[in-house]
Fold this sequence. Notes:
Helix content is 26%, strand content 19%. The chain has helices spanning 75-87, 104-110, 112-118, 155-163, 214-217, 222-228, 245-251, 257-273, and strands spanning 16-20, 28-33, 39-43, 52-57, 61-67, 91-97, 122-124, 144-148, 188-191, 197-200. The chain binds guanosine-5'-triphosphate, magnesium ion (MG) and zinc ion (ZN).
Amino acid sequence: xxxxxxxxxxxxxxxxxxxxxxxxxxxxxxxxxxxxxxxxxxxxxxxxxxxxxxxxxxxxxxxxxxxxxxxxxxxxxxxxxxxxxxxxxxxxxxxxxxxxxxxxxxxxxxxxxxxxxxxxxxxxxxxxxxxxxxxxxxxxxxxxxxxxxxxxxxxxxxxxxxxxxxxxxxxxxxxxxxxxxxxxxxxxxxxxxxxxxxxxxxxxxxxxxxxxxxxxxxxxxxxxxxxxxxxxxxxxxxxxxxxxxxxxxxxxxxxxxxxxxxxxxxxxxxxxxx
Length: 274
Ligand SMILES: Nc1nc2c(ncn2[C@@H]2O[C@H](COP(=O)(O)OP(=O)(O)OP(=O)(O)O)[C@@H](O)[C@H]2O)c(=O)[nH]1
Ligand SMILES: [Mg+2]
Ligand SMILES: [Zn+2]
């Protein structure tokens, strides 16, 4: 049977078969849920929770949306989202909105490792000031895309921009806490003018990666791949072992210190939970 309180039984994006109710219009019964090809999942909220919460199914790509400021982005959040994308077979794209709030060269420099990791799949813009927004729709052509990120970064503003009208409600960020106010409260799939679909989601405060163990964590850090085989021990966890090629690469500046710190923090977090 299904676990209790499982909100993931049927989610936005699921392909289902229904039997239409002949008597009451627009009602029916879901009888079959087809296997999910891709998904964006996290561990459901709650201490020691081990329940998978699927946010959306069968989308092609994940836009990890953050803001240059108000609220400022946190690269550890981006790293978690990248792992979730990879786990769910989603193509990741990083969007940085509100670029008018920070100098552009600062953003480009600060996010250097993500430009390397994501190649062309990173875009910095401002929806409010309409800066670098011209090509935004191109990311969505003939694809289904979920937009996820913290509250207040402009996810719904993006949806409205792409649709060319204020279909969905947006909200201001709280001045006191510089955080969003969780304006969007449900997952919504909308058709776009260029044969694509976009899924707006409520702001994510914290993303706890669904089902990952310490041994597999390193495989989600693409930049470790090139050097890993040179570690002295085949079982190296790249934290304190001697002659670790990953640590060496961090010291030589080949691997970003921040990405490496993210790995260590996640490793310890997973270790504590298991
Ligand atoms: N300064 C600035 N503000 C922006 C920009 N884009 C959107 N905003 C504002 O940011 C606030 C939050 O926008 P939303 O689109 O509601 O944010 P959201 O990510 O959907 O937030 P949740 O639904 O709570 O997850 C609104 O007041 C927008 O007008 C931008 O480029 N610059
Ligand atoms: Mg919203
Ligand atoms: Zn190592």
